Amino acid sequence: MIPTSTLLNRWRSILLVLAASLLVAAAPRTVILRGSVVGITDGDTCTLLVGATQYKIRLEGIDAPEMDQPFGKQSKRFVSKLIFGKTVDVKDLGLDNYKRTLGYITEGSTEVNEAIVTAGLARHYVQVL
Predict the structure, then answer these.
(1) Rounded mean pLDDT of the chain?
(2) What pTM was estimated for this model as a whole?
(3) Beta strand 101-107 with 123-124: parallel, antiparallel or unpaired?
(4) What phi and psi, each to the nearest 5 degrees, are found at residue 117?
(5) Is 124 helix (H, G, I), strand (E, B) or coil?
(6) CA-to-CA distance for 93 and 125, rounded, in angstroms?
(7) What single string gives the DSSP state of each residue in 39-86?
(8) Any idea where the domains of the chain sit in the sequence?
(9) How confident is the model at residue 1 (pLDDT cuts 50, 70, 90)?
(10) DSSP designation for 108
(11) By CB count within 10 A, which of 71, 72, 112, 129 is most buried?
(12) What is the DSSP track for 87-107?
């Protein structure tokens, strides 16, 4: 017969391994999409091609003017010069209400979301719930 203390230690070990596994599984994972920018909708939305899959990317944390608003065309042109046809990394933050991928875009060492705001062609935006 196995002593009770040995059985308890084995069960503790098993429970610790299970708890650690659950913590690792529940930890948020950063997903980085790497692909080519194949379309620019406006100053805060673009299309990313990853393999054969297209993602509509909505740049997180900024609000650029719409195309029919003042500076809308300038904002789109600026973003086009920064990333159109280039390979970029997108930090995927999930989907918005329109099923677009929310994300931060990096092209080389350029933080694109920040660059648009710094250029004065979008404003920093935080959604208030």
Answers:
(1) 88
(2) 0.76
(3) unpaired
(4) -65, -45
(5) strand
(6) 15
(7) EEEETTEEEEEETTEEEEEEETTEEPPPTTSTTHHHHHHHHHHHHTTS
(8) 31-124
(9) low
(10) T
(11) 112
(12) EEEEEEEEE-TTSPEEEEEEE
Q: Tell me if 75 sits within 8 A of 97, measured CB to CB.
A: no
* 36, two tokens: 């080519």
Q: Which residue has the tokens 């920018």?
A: 37
Residues recognised as catalytic: 58, 66, 100
User: 3-state class of 21 per DSSP?
Assistant: helix
Kindly state the tokens that stand for 75: 């904002």
| Amino acid (1-letter code) at residue 21 | S
* Helix or strand (DSSP H, E) at 123: strand 123-124
Check: CATH 2.40.50.90 for 31-124?
yes
- Could you report the per-residue pLDDT of 10-68, keeping only the tens digit for each? 666 665 555 555 655 555 678 999 999 999 999 999 999 999 999 999 999 999 999 99
Distances 84 to 8, 89, 125 between C-alpha atoms, Å: 61, 13, 23
Per-residue tokens: 109: 């060492």
Name 52's Cβ contacts closer than 8 Å, sequence gap at least 6. none
